[in-house]
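Entry type: protein chain
Record version: 2
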Amino acid sequence: MAASPVVSKIAEAMAAKVHGDEHIDPVSLDGYNFNAIIQYIVNARREGTESLISLHYPASKAYDLAVRLERKLTQLDQDKIRRCEYDFESGILYLDIMPVRPLHYVVQEGVKVDLRGSLAALIPAIDDAKLRHRVSQVLEMGEVDIRRQGKIWKQGDISFCEPGSGRLSSVVGEISTSHVERKAIQYIDGTQGEIQAVFIVDMLYPTATKAKMSLFTADGTKGHWVQRSVIFYDDALEEQPIGQLGLYLSDFLGARGLPTAFCRPSAAELAAEISRVPQIIMSFDQLRAIFLYARDIHRKEDVPAPGRKAKKRAREEEEQVDGHLSTNREEAKRARQERYERRDKRQRLLEEQKNAEGHILELERRATKAEEEALKVKQESEQQVEQAKQQA
């Protein structure tokens, strides 16, 4: 008897995982009806298949389909779709149906907190009070939809925005477990330069034996690669690469009205060999530390999702074990031992997750402290300006 289309698709996805592909490629569900898509999602999650769905779909109906799928999954007591995106050039809807992995989460949070801290630490060094205020207002928006009708519908892992600027975002980061170079170009092109810079941290999932970074920026044209697939960690190297991710204030605020020293050199300036020192820097040492910490957690096995569904799975596992207890005494003893080992394993993994979250909280605490100190400096500076006005 032939396998169903849904089962065949899951088998393809699992085969790609077994063969050690460095990225998880999308599984096309073209021609599937609504119920078949739902069935694929439920089955893929049950099998633990790494799965990114793609299907050709009319742009005018793509958002409605995503909403309908999420409603149906909620009715089935399933997690919502983690990410929905649409490629207007190819007419393809992409659905990331699996929960975020510890590898992705820890790198995402580590990079986000580090950049926030670097921005906050820069504020006291800025002489101009108005510019200090603008920098202090920049927000990290997390995973937000970046949408322009008919142009772009994406969702970055990290995004910075200046409130009141009218821009969607200014700097976007992608913590990649799939190919995203095309997506980086679309961020710049689809927003007509509203997004000034897109950086990518590519972990080459699932092997994670090396990691790369890329930086794509707007320069008044269609943008260019400042860095492209530059390795910052490789298991095979005895000496790891030296380098950095360098961002400028103009990436966060736009170049208009900024002193030249804070602006990223344009393509014409670079051609004339004009360079400037970036203000927000993340060294390869910092990136490696975050990546290796995340990889260590990833390799110890995936952390079970907390909450009601994790408890439900644990209870189901225990019931399955209990069903074998009636066979004979030896099997019963072995089954109980396996159950205890699973419980211990779950507890260890939960503790590791707690430790990882504690590390992220510590990074956030440091960033918050830097922001508070920067705010204090800003307030003192504003008071001095006000006193000078009164004396005048």
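Comment: Residues 1-22, 302-308 have pLDDT under 50 and may be disordered.
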